[in-house]
Amino acid sequence: MAVTIYGVVAVSFMMVMYALETRSRHFIAAFALGCALSSSYGFLAGTWPFGVVEGVWTFIALRRYVSTGKLATSSTVTARSKA
Q1: Which residue of 1, 60, 68, 79 could cross-link 25, Cys pair, CB 3.0 to 4.6 Å?
Q2: CA-CA-CA-CA torsion sign (32, 35, 39, 40)
């Protein structure tokens, strides 16, 4: 029962963060955390394919988080150099 509740909370958190990720890059990081939590739930529940797929999504979201920060930094530098 506890694993089921953990899974509901983890997947719900992941979905809410996915819906909010266009608002801030911090929601992308939170989405990555949600994916990691969902991945751990998959392994705890014995559904390892779900755990593996969510683990892959964790790395994809982390990569997007990092690249979004680089884009923001490079656009700030470009804006300053034009001024």
Answers
A1: 68
A2: positive
- In order of 19, 31, 35, 68, 69, the CA distances from 76 in angstroms are 26, 25, 30, 12, 11
Q: Is the predicted pLDDT of residue 74 greater than 90, yes or no?
A: no
Q: Can you tell me the distance from the alpha carbon of 82 to that of 26, in angstroms, rounded to the nearest whole number?
A: 28
* Total count of domains within the chain: 1
Q: What is the pTM of this model?
A: 0.82
State the alpha helices, DSSP H only, in the chain: 2-20, 25-44, 48-82
How far apart, in whole angstroms, are the C-alpha atoms of residue 69 and residue 28?
A: 11
Dig out the tokens for 73 from the structure. Answer: 């930094």
Query: Which residue range forms the structural domain that includes residue 55?
Result: 2-82
